[in-house]
Fold these 3 entries.
Entry 1:
Amino acid sequence: MSRTRIVLAAAIALAAVCVVGVVHAQQKSYQLSPAASVTQTVGLTDITVVYHRPGVKGRKIWGELVPYDKVWRAGANEATSVTFSTDVTIGGKSLKAGSYSFFVIPRQGDWSVILNSQPQWGAFSYDSTKNVLQSSVKPEAAANEERLSYSFTDVTGNSAKLVLRWEKIALPVEIEVGTDANFTKATKAAASMPAQVYNNYALYCLDSKTNLDKGLEAVEKSIAINENASNLRMKAELLAQSGKTADAIAIAEKAITVGKAANPNFNSSEIEELLAQWKKK
């Protein structure tokens, strides 16, 4: 065999080995309880739950497959984990930002929800001395859910409910994220763009329809640093929501003027729609 053919044969063999290696690397194992995750942003906080989804499969779940009065991993395989990007409050108790194992103790009355600092498989090595938070939560009757799931409901700018659902039970865990405090930290940290952070806080006040005075205070700070069409529009919307329609109209018109001065192609259609609504009042 010529040298060229030998080199070609070796290259083909090596390519075959590489293909087989890639195929093996990409293979997934079939899971009886498939892995899942869900992430929700609440205010400035990201909350992520990573878990596995067991099925009911005709079994009696509560009190049998999952015994009452015993710590349960709140899923299958590894203990369910919850990660918070900022400090939060659960059941009136403070919890630092970080990742935690999530356990529950099902009962015939209120259940216990536990956040534990130790990552682990299942609940076999559960150590109560590693608990960082424990709260009592009332379960609710719900439509049948064949596979365990986690979801977020009642999401606002400052809170949400993390809901565990399985079989005919829903367990809503209320989480508060302290958005006001997080904005204060963000403003202090944003030395290069405080105008944007102030305007973002004003948006939160507008969206949540609370603390309108604080929102106006924040947007005034944004305007003082860098007046632009965005923060002028925000001020106009806050004024309108506060019942100061005439002032809102004047500021919105200024927003259009400032926007077009900065950019001749500035799109003012949304502000003009707001102006039309306010002028009808």
Entry 2:
Amino acid sequence: MGEAGERVRALLAAHLPGYQVESLTRLGAGLDNVAYDVNGDLIVRFGTGANADREARLLTTVGNLSPLPVPVPRFTDAGCLAYPKLPGVPLLDAAGVDGVPVAAALGGLLAALHAAPIERMAKLVETDDLPVDEWRREARETYASVSANVPSAYRRRVEAFLETPAPEDPRTLAFSHNDLGIEHVLVDPLTGEITGVIDWSDAAIVDPAYDFGLIHRDLGPVALDAALTAYGTAPEGLRVRALFYARCSVFEDLAYGLETSRERYVVKSLVALEWLFA
């Protein structure tokens, strides 16, 4: 690992005295950070100082709000953020797990997040309030790029949807994960129990319907019902907009799967067309 490995070891010695480093694996680098797996139970990530500190504050706050496990930071230091590696596998990779009880638990999570005071959370995250009609416009563009991969049986209904007026914009916004796809939900593959919700980098003040839309997109209508039941009283129009976001976002996931050769994204997107455009 060279210099980077020595830096990781030095930081761990300073912040977690007595912690023994037995294995150190570079996980890869993104546009803004590089991460390391330490001993299979700790993630140490380097990025910009301001972003790391802000994310640490966000994750600490979310950890106090969430009824489900989240990666609460162990320490930060000049652009370094360290947090536990949660157990489990992404639901995307957990074949055979029943998504309905998972969705119910996610509905409870969203109830807790959406109840957080906007004024408090706005100090930690941005507001993402793209007009609903812009979602439709972007979905049209994305669909045009992937339409050749959409089975012909669905194309007429997809194209009719993309020409239908969008729902009204939400009257209120809420703090939410803002990317609650099944790739970010960790589960025990044997029991189906949620072991963690990860990747809070897109968390924002948003339409509370959006994450419900991703639940519907990835897990289906029965799962959406379970999530909404667990959520409790939903704002007016939330279900309608959730269905809308589910339909728009499926093309984004399909495009991502095709561009990156990630077959699981392609398969799940094509499967979802059955309940999104039946």
Entry 3:
Amino acid sequence: MSRKVAVVTGAARGLGAAICRALVDDGYQVAALDLTASAETHDGILTIECDVSDEVAVNAAISSVEQQLGMPSVLVNNAGILAPGRIDDTSLEVWNRTLAVNLTSAFLLSKRVLPGMRAAGYGRIINVGSSAGKNGGFSTGGAYAASKAAMMCLAKSIATAERSNGITSNAVAPSMIETDMMGALPSKAMLDRVPVGRMGTPAEVANVVRFLASEGAAYVNGEVIDVDGGLFID
């Protein structure tokens, strides 16, 4: 297995696109999975259209990666959707869809790539969570917060299960990052709570992911790393 094949979900824009660029810069062949991606190779990135909440689609996408690039050694579970609103205003349909995209996708992708990583004795799984998964969020909604908390716990569970197989599993917990999902700019009062005094950039999150994907992070396992400018210090 080449140690330079990475799969990134939710890769068409925002954090996912930045993570893809960072991994390409580090010499990876990257498969970028997204619901609206076109299947073509450019600049070291193979883009594959995939509904990551659908097991059949996930299995087909990873089979395509294996055929075209090789066995993935890195998986970045980044796909996510936001479902703002109070719990009593959240429909069951919205709840189920949020968990399917944000959480079930990470389960399906991890389940699909782990046997190959286990056989090779090497792998990196990184889940992109959120500070909302640690503190419940300010306005992100219960479905989003619950899904992110669960996917960060999933990373820890995989770390424990695969501890003797050369596979590490970690998560990052960004907050207040300049992406479309963030929507309107936060208030001055909110920004004043951030010790570094500004919002973060997708590239700054990607830099943490690229470290966790590297062989240099071999002794980092089962961790959730905050990328929030010190907004939440625990």
